[in-house]
Design goal:
The chain is α+β, with helices and mostly antiparallel strands. It is about 30% helix and about 30% strand. The protein contains 8 helices and 14 strands. The protein is globular. It starts with 10 loop residues before the first helix and ends with a strand.
Length: about 280
């Protein structure tokens, strides 16, 4: 696997490279309202520590596969990225904190050693440059990962759990997914129904859709509550900005505050900023 990042590889070349990778698995889906479309969901083989091992040892996976990646294949028009989740982030283990405090007596296992550097190298570099590190402490929504996007070509919502995407325009499309009987859509269907309830309450829906182009809205589905926290991320860059937050209600708050959830902001002397999930 090469080390190209997401800004240096086309959607088609990325797809071809991932399809040839034995550590990658795919799930094929359909689009109820368009028989000429197909969805390919991409993830890594393995869960838990096995997944951490793959991400820890391969920056290409961290930058491209992330926590969810889907392609849209259209007859005669080729393939494009449909949605891209957050970069993979890792548990902050107590052993890492001991190392950060200068305790190097207990050598970490190889994977943990790599993860320590994945988490802290940018932080250390920023401090070495005389920059500042700001940590925002927020609540942790513990549910099913929920991702929302928008495809302007079909005026359709991209609704996904971490590993399964759907393309929908209305409730009928969700019903069609439910009728297909494929269990892999179970969480995405619940998220989609809830999203349509929220979407109709957005005051400027046209402007909202415009702002969502090439971006993914990230949140959690917690029972009947969707989007306990929300963050918009760019598909094509590593820039992350706050979008909004819902606290126990169906109100969707739009903001451009630069406030980030569960994120470290690294401010460097040259004025540049990096954002890192923790």
């Amino acid at each position: 696997m090469n080390s190209q990042n997401l800004t240096q590889i086309s959607d088609g070349n990325l797809f071809d490279e991932l399809m040839d990778d034995l550590s990658v698995k795919t799930g094929e889906g359909y689009v109820p309202f368009a028989s000429n479309l197909g969805i390919i969901d991409v993830s890594l083989r393995g869960r838990g520590r096995r997944e951490d091992h793959l991400f820890a040892n391969n920056e290409f996976y961290r930058k491209n596969v992330r926590r969810g990646l889907s392609f849209l294949e259209e007859d005669s028009k080729g393939i494009k990225i449909l949605r891209r989740g957050l970069e993979k982030f890792f548990d902050l283990r107590s052993a890492y904190l001991r190392m950060l405090g200068g305790n190097f007596e207990d050598k970490l296992p190889a994977d943990d050693e790599k993860l320590f550097h994945v988490i802290f190298d940018d932080v250390q570099e920023t401090l070495d440059m005389g920059g500042t590190v700001t940590i925002y402490k927020t609540e942790k929504a513990n549910g099913e990962n929920a991702q929302i996007g928008y495809d302007e070509n079909y005026d359709a919502w991209v609704v996904a759990s971490k590993n399964v995407s759907m393309l929908i325009r209305n409730k009928q499309d969700i019903d069609d997914y439910a009728k297909c009987g494929d269990g892999r859509y179970a969480y995405a269907i619940l998220i989609a129904y809830k999203w349509l309830e929220l979407a109709v309450k957005i005051p400027d829906l046209k402007g909202f859709k415009e702002g969502l182009k090439n971006r993914t809205l990230i949140g959690e589905y917690c029972g009947k509550l969707l989007l306990k926290y929300c963050t918009i991320i760019m598909k094509r860059t590593s820039k992350t900005s706050a979008f909004g937050r819902v606290q126990g209600s169906d109100d969707l708050l739009f903001c451009n505050s630069g406030f980030l959830f569960r994120t470290v902001m690294l401010s460097r002397p040259d004025g540049s900023r990096l954002f890192q999930e923790v």
